Amino acid sequence: MAEVGSENTANKEAGAGAGVEKTAMVVGIDESDHSFYALQWTLRHFFSIPVPLFKLVVVSAKPTPSSVVGLAGPGAADVIPFVESDLRRSSLRVIEKAKELCNLHSVSDVVYEIHEGDARNVLCEAVEKHHADMLVVGSHGYGAIKRAVLGSVSDYCAHHAHCTVMIVKKPKQHKH
C-alpha cells in the first residue's frame, strides 16, 4: 500500500459542528473516463457546499505486475521490473488527474491513496480502513457477457462493501 498524500488530513471542522469527526467517502478511480466522471459528479454533488459532510478519500488500485504479465513463460521475470515501473507511472498519472479535478472544484481536504491489488478488494479494504459511510464508483457500462467474463468492480463492491455504494453512470454521448 502506498499512501500518495493528503492535501489536508484534518478531520475536524471549525465552527458549526466543531469537534464532530467527518465521515469518509471513498471514491474509486482508475484511468477510465467513467471513473473520472464519477469523481467529478461526486465533487459537484457532495463537495460544492461550504462545509462538506464528508472527508474525501480517493483510491486507485494498481494491479500487481504478475497479474499483468501472467504466466508468460521463460523470461517473464525479466519483464516484471519494467511492468512495475509502468504501472507505478500510470497510477501516479491517475492520482495527478484526480488532484487536478479536486483543485478545479476547490476541494482540498482530500486523502489520495494507491493500493496494489485487485480493485474490488482494494476498494472494500479502503472502506474498512477509513470507516467510510459511502463508496462511489463509476460504471463502465459493460454488457452482460463482458461483465460475466471480466467481472464488475461495481457489482462486487455493491455486494461486499460494508457501506452504501453509489454507482455513477456516465451519460451516453448522442451523435447528432
From TrEMBL:
Q: Where is the UspA domain?
A: 25-169
Highest rank taxon of the organism: Eukaryota
Pfam families in the record: Usp
* Name assigned to this protein: UspA domain-containing protein
Organism this protein belongs to: Rhynchospora breviuscula
